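SUBJECT: A protein chain and its fold
Encoding: whole-number codes for local backbone shapes
Chain under study, with its fold:
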Amino acid sequence: MRELSLHLLDIAENSLSAGAATVNISLEYKPGVLRFRVSDNGKGMEKEFLDKVTSPFTTSRTTRKVGMGIPLLKNSAEITGGSFRIKSGLGAGTVVEADFITSSIDRIPIGNIDETMKALILSNPSQDFELKFKNGEKEYELKTVDIKNYLKGVPIQNSDIINWIGESIREGLKEIFGGVLNEISG
């Protein structure tokens, strides 16, 4: 996967497949490091499966015997000199974190987070997503549960709403990472 947004899509889909009602996504910049984090309240993983999940030959899918998403994310982070962590437990959800060294020539670009989030929301309107960008004291946050409450019955997948969400995310990225956006997005 050549963009962080594609890793986000893959990990979020794993969360949804695990029965998560809420998926929390964050990108946090600290000098020299971009931290990517996805956490959920899904069913979690047994320890035996968790111990093997970074192997491409471990998957929970029944349609194929290979699972490349988590191993590729781990590799993408580690090739920059960064790190990868995953925590999970049955009934406790899952947390996936990857740190990317932003000065590395091997760091993948952020990609189209706005389009990825729109796709996730459109295909999973009953789930809730929380997106957060942080850079020092500056923060951007979008919670679909708040948007749904504000809409009072208007479907979140309404084209005007979904386009507004995409624009809000694009503006949030620019506002929060503006000074370092070129460094982060490659």
Notes: The chain has one domain: 4-185. The two ends are 15 Å apart (CA to CA).
